[in-house]
Amino acid sequence: MTNELTPKFNPTEVEAGRYEKWLEADVFKPSGNPDAEPYSIVIPPPNVTGKLHLGHAWDTTLQDIIIRQKRMQGFDTLWLPGMDHAGIATQAKVAARLAEDGILPQDLGREKFLDKVWEWKDEYATTIKEQWGKMGISVDYSRERFTLDEGLSQAVRKVFVQLYNKGWIYRGEKLINWDPKAMTALSDIEVIHKEIDGAFYHITYQIEGSDEFVEIATTRPETFLGDTAVIVNEKDERYKHLVGKNVILPIINRVIPILTDDHADMEKGTGVVKITPAHDPNDFEVAMRHNLPMINMMNNDGTINENGGKYEGLDRFEARKQIVADLKELGQLVDIKPVRHEVGHSERTGVVVEPRLSTQWFVKMDELAKNAIANQTTEDAVEFYPPRFNDTFMQWMENVHDWVISRQLWWGHQIPAWYNEAGEMYVGEEAPDGEGWTQDEDVLDTWFSSALWPFSTMGWPDENSADFKRYFPTSTLVTGYDIIFFWVSRMIFQSLEFTGKSPFHNVLIHGLIRDEEGRKMSKSLGNGIDPMDVIEKYGADALRWFLSNGSAPGQDVRFSYDKMDAAWNFINKIWNVSRYILMNAEDVSADAVSSALTKVANKTAGNVTDRWILTRLNDTARRVTEQMDKFEFGVAGHILYNFIWDEFANWYLELTKEVMFGEDEAEKDITRAVLLHVLDQVLRLLHPIMPFFTEEIFEKLPNTSGSIVVAEYPKVRPEFNDDKASEGVAMLIELITAVRNIRAEVNTPLSKAVPMLIKSEHADFLNAVSPYISRFTNPSELTIAKDLAVPEQAMSAVITGAELYLPLAGLINIEEEIARLEKELAKWQKELDLVNKKLGNERFVANAKAEVVQKEKDKLADYQEKFDTVKARIAELKEN
């Protein structure tokens, strides 16, 4: 195998075929090591309605980062993949496809229609798996599940029957949210409230047997067809004389009573409220208190039914127009006042939801919610990242309503209830014996089966299943904050009820991906981004780097092609660094690297820059691991970026050229070994985020073998820590940077040699590294001493541990130099003020870790020294 890398990083070439090789090598399966700590994730299942979107790409990227790192750290990792049947969305998609050929689902019948849906599922599941492959997610496909698998279906039936037998699932007639397009019930959280333009229609109802009228106001005039009363407040003096009388509904001329109820607000509107129990939740409660009839005036498809008189068959909004016109003609439409108000829309189909009285199946939530709330005070509590989402979860649980779980669909888990002609009902995991039983036509809400996902996919209800015993509860769930109510909450209360345990230890919540202007991506705006298009241009590694570094947990992120360009440039930088190292170290063996590192650690070989970079590598590995453990991937990425780009590529690599272009072969061997080791460790640290190109380079390193997927994750090696080397090279870098800045200020290029004087207590060290100083600053004369005469006309800089002077007579203006130094003095004064303020905060000093406080004290001493030195230099220049 050649060690050569192409001159320019090409993601298409690097990623082609790589995923298939990983699958063939079975590197994604659990290790099976009984001594290893298990770590498991179940993938939030995408629905089978189409392609992956950026939000799901974010989910999978973060999960893959976690599982790849844990795998490298020696955990027995399981990442179980699967997909969700998505009842409403999938049935709608298949029905739409059939409609293109003029076919209705009813034309086919239930069984043949379901055959078409299974064909759809197979088609789109294949597409999704291909896209997972392009993303590089390291799942174990031998355990792949689908929410309509027989094993999961068995779990669904068991849960339904057990909750029914406890009285926690019941069938009843209640007011629910109805989707007239999908023609099914919806739960509260499947309704999105959008602000739209509407109107208040002021209508008069005549008092029976008189010429008197009362005025009501409504935003839905068509619902008067279902009115069964009007109410006033018993304290309202305006209407006391009317209580007990009746009003006549206009047009349909039905007589309904006038009642008193506290729901009528004397200060709001006219104080008279129409009651439509079958189409308004508040009116439903009033009707229950007064035992009013409930008239449903609407068909499943949103058209007016037989209770609507002459409006029967009209669409609800067409009926509204006609009713308003008729009321106007009768003189009973007083006014129309425009209003901007929130109206419920179906989360799936987008149509306006209709509150509607309907017979449905419900889950009684009080005990389930109580258990979930109580669990959050125990050791088994689910940890939310960020923690504020625990409050979101708790608030929903404390205010949750009974969950309507039946859906008027064909695609899904058919409700395990049967009826016979005698009016009997049977609920069981299997059909009842005997003839004459018909199963309930409805299916269960998709979230009912998804709520069981963490344990049903592990083999439950068989609690002796090897995977269930080994990997449940799962370790971490990653998902967006938009489905905390839909999915996360339901998994928690169902898992507690049926396994006695929380379904996962941690929940990492991310935000939404928005466009560059901060808008939510949507079809209507046309601002959606297909992750596959991004991968085609930049590669999966660049997209994964962007998604992992985009924001902190719980925060939204804006997609930007500029950021994608930056991600690609970063990968290309590492690619070029790797090319340089491979060209200079192609014959170095693993044993040679190990031997060289031991010598550097023992200080029997190598130089200060070698010890510095190994110290910095230790610090980077420690900090990255700490941040990854806290799911702060953006912080971890920032640390990696700074180390790789600045310290490793821009400084160490350049500093090594002093050795690589020299004559000492033994020293070159040490440097080659250190270069290879640092590159090896950098690739391992990056691998969880950028799996493809890190594997490509890793397999070309002469000192490695096997796949990076199962390579050991970097650990801190204390023998490499060298604080003196770290401080010394930091001073060297600061000195070189200061010289470059001074040269730039006076427009003196590096090619022009200039004299340089350095006054420092660390003169011995600086003289030892003077070859580096000379290479990178080009002095005509270099003087380094603990004490020396300061030239009168010189540009100066104060760095940690040293004072730098460049006598540039004729090139500097004393007054300008004083002005520059005064700006620098102000900068150090500002730094001193900040540190003093922090150290003057008693709470900070008392509560912060000792090492953090000491770090601030060290800063104070350093800033004070620089302030004093600059101040003294200004005084010298002014005297002269």
Structural class of the secondary structure composition? alpha/beta
Determine the fraction of residues in helical runs and give it as a percent range.
40-55%
What summary fits the major beta sheet?
Answer: 7 strands, mixed
Mean pLDDT: 91
* Share in β-strands: 15-25%
**Unreliable segments of 5+ consecutive residues:** none
Radius of gyration: 36 Å
The rough form would be described as elongated
Determine the number of helices (DSSP H or I, runs of at least 4 residues).
29
Distance linking N and C termini? 68 Å
Quantity of strands, as a count: 29
Descriptive overview:
- It is a single chain.
- This protein is of the alpha/beta class.
- 45% of the residues lie in helices and 17% in strands.
- It has 29 helices and 29 strands.
- Strands 7, 8, 9, 10, 11, 12 and 13 form a seven-stranded mixed β-sheet that branches. The chain has a four-stranded antiparallel β-sheet with strand order 6-5-14-16. A four-stranded mixed β-sheet has the order 27-26-29-28, sandwiched between helices.
- Helix 17 (540-549) crosses helix 18 and helix 20 runs antiparallel to helix 21.
- The longest helix is centred in the C-terminal third of the chain and has 30 residues, at 850-879.
- It is elongated and about 115 Å long.
- The two termini are 68 Å apart.
- The mean pLDDT is 91.
